[in-house]
Design a protein that fits this description.
The protein is of the alpha+beta class. It has a single domain, classed as Sandwich (Jelly Rolls), CATH 2.60.120.10. Helix content is 19%, strand content 37%. A hairpin with a 5-residue loop joins strand 6 and strand 7. Its EC number is 1.13.11.54, 1.13.11.53. Its cofactor is Fe(2+); Ni(2+). Belongs to the acireductone dioxygenase (ARD) family.
Amino acid sequence: MVKAWFFDEKIANPREPCQLENVSLEVVEALGCKLFKFDAENKEDCISLKKIVKDQNYNFQDEITVSREKLPEYEKKVKMFLEEHIHDDPEARACLDGSGYFDVRDKNDKWIRILVEKGDLLIVPAGIYHRFVPDLNDFIVAIRFFEGNPVWTPINRANEENIEKMPIRQKFLATLL
């Protein structure tokens, strides 16, 4: 089962677990995140994965391998993934192999770390501050799902003065009330 906890910001290396107290999956789901399990070994024939894809209206997908050997400009990309940001669309990732961390901000602006491992599918809602980092294994293979044309453009919190006024951010905040 997917595991989540509050992120310890005192730990220098964000690829470490940086674990404080555990967070229930109900808390993560209350933020609008959706968590699923699927059969990563049989992804092509996995009925539960096909159902999720259909129910979420995903019509585009690709596969990404995040590792030093496979991802060009690995350190630059990992640094980019670690930038706190939002998207106009949900971010959906199904872990086929390896593991990594998605960090999401809770309603009190605290980081909650979500460990994704082989067979986990996480959907992060549009408008929530989040980031991704590989764990100490530096290896994850994931399917990225999209509804419509794929959009990879992050809206970085540090670079956007009016991010809190953006309609997608306001829509997300309204779901927390």
